[in-house]
Amino acid sequence: MQETVFIADEAAMEHVGAVLLEAMQQRGVVHLQGDLGMGKTTLSRGLLRAAGHQGAVKSPTYTLVEPYDVAQGTIYHFDLYRLLDPEELEYLGIRDYFTEDSLALIEWPDKGQGLLPEPDLELFLTPQDEGRALRWQAHSEHGAVAAEKLQL
Ligand code: ADP
Ligand code: MG
Predict the structure, then answer these.
(1) How many A from CA of 79 to the centre of ligand 2?
(2) Residue ranges of the alpha helices (H) in the chain?
(3) Which atom of ligand 1 is nearest to the CA of 7?
């Protein structure tokens, strides 16, 4: 894992999302690890805006997943915080969400353990001073290529 990068505020976190979009070339699976309030949704909003989405971005806490049709395909934003049983993901038709040309951002991926695909890239957000510390770990070739491009 690479050294920690300091993300000072909300705007900087949205910028991380934009850089991540470019690095992932809008495909693959990214796990967003971090406690409540660490900026997972903020990062996701930055990514979706950079992909051309102009409306609101809220964490899909009750619906578990929100699809966004953007210019170059579909981005799925998951928030599994309220998932009680990974089996619930079966009812959502979980397998349809992971295709060659889609990108999935997953908040609280551990709640879906066993039913989610392995991530290409895993991001970790922790508190640091008034901002956040960001680290990441690649888990595939695609993720490793993306990690190289994360110049933050
Ligand atoms: P999560 O989805 O991880 O629960 P949110 O994205 O909803 O967290 O963010 C929670 C709060 O943290 C928001 O008020 C947001 O503005 C703030 N925030 C996001 N990134 C940072 C940052 N790098 N430094 C300080 N505050 C941040
Ligand atoms: Mg959130």
Answers:
(1) 7
(2) 10-24, 40-50, 88-91, 141-149
(3) 23
